[in-house]
User: What shape does this take?
Amino acid sequence: MGYKIIDDKDLAFLRQALDDGRVYAGEAISEDFSHDELGGISRMPEVMVEVLSTEEVSKVMKYAHENNIPVVIRGSGTGLVGASVPIHGGIMMNMTKMTRIKELDENNLTLTVDPGVMLMDIAKYVEERDFFYPPDPGEKTATIAGNINTNAGGMRAVKYGVTRDYVRGLELVMPNGDIMKVGGKVVKNSSGYSIKDMVCGSEGTLAVITEATLKLLPLPKKVISLLIPFPNLDMAISTVPKIIKSKAAPTAIEFMQREVILAAEQFLDKKFPDNSSDAYLLLSFDGNSTEEIERSYDKVAQLCLEEGALDVFISDTDERKQSIWSARGAFLEAVKASTTDMDECDVCVPRDRVADFIKYTHELEKQFDVRIRSFGHAGDGNLHVYVLKDDMNEEQWKKKLTDIFECMYSRARELEGVVSGEHGIGFAKRPYLFEQYDESYISLLRNIKLAFDPRNILNPGKVCQ
Assistant: This one.
């Protein structure tokens, strides 16, 4: 589809609609806006605008719709699949100046916020008031609209679920500029199709989120973590289904290997509580009393020791928990800092097939003579597997990466898994989505996109296109 190239008339409209100081063109646009966190896909927008209100978003979208100009929505740029890269140029709409926390409704247990509020600010704000927003992706500087657009999961998903489970209502600007409210503060809603749930996970292809109403929970009074070393990763991950079956209800179950821990230690310049074992499980438990939590973790600790764990380290102070979880939160950056380039496979497989998939990545490491590092959410089967470039030249890197990804995504399908657990499809992972689903499924996705955006101007070329 041919899109209009931005010209002086378009710039004049945008500068009049938003004021000149928030419209950037040409060399005035920072190179940072050409890519996301992983950086494998790059393209500069023709113009980047900073919006401050729903009305401004509506003006820009209406103009773009009337003039056939593509628009890409941008938050903090922490994505990993190129979903916020403007591959067709056009207008980039930067939402990071919309940062108001609008309302905490204690009666309905909801928080209403602007799209550019960062996850870490939401967590801090509600916890100071004895409330709890459970979704906990590793990147705390991500914006809430970015989390909603990818249906982000994170480390607490095993007990509490994912972002979609905590979105009660959205204010949307449609691709034609219309403003729409979907959902709300109600707990139940069977009033037609759930547009809200379609937008969650749509990666900015269906509508622009300009406000979100989030579900909150009362803040658990106590949190305790267990760090459990195992002789090898197979033993560690094979224990996870047994932990789930025990009904102990941990908040998080993460797995990690020694190589990633060592990289995090070097990156953070501080020691992990233990780095002597090949593999670890990291579990978290929360509740309203120490006794309640102890009943849960005692059962899990004993189970792990019976399954071959070498020890169980209990972290019940803020300092100890911080030393563990800060390292876990730094894994991605630590792995990235240890190589020249990398790309990620974000598959999700049934929990009892995690060990099979990780074992397969070790075989690929030997077969292709590359470094592959992995960690992830063992409790919900979402794996983050990184292929590292190291000293390969560009031709070798592209060839090996393509071959390895074909192997990994094929293996995930064999294990009844899916292409992405929480990072999305964006631009980079579309071929693997097309391989996973038949034409009738992809056609349905495309028809949903067409119903929302008949001119295909909102983040074109992503997900199912």
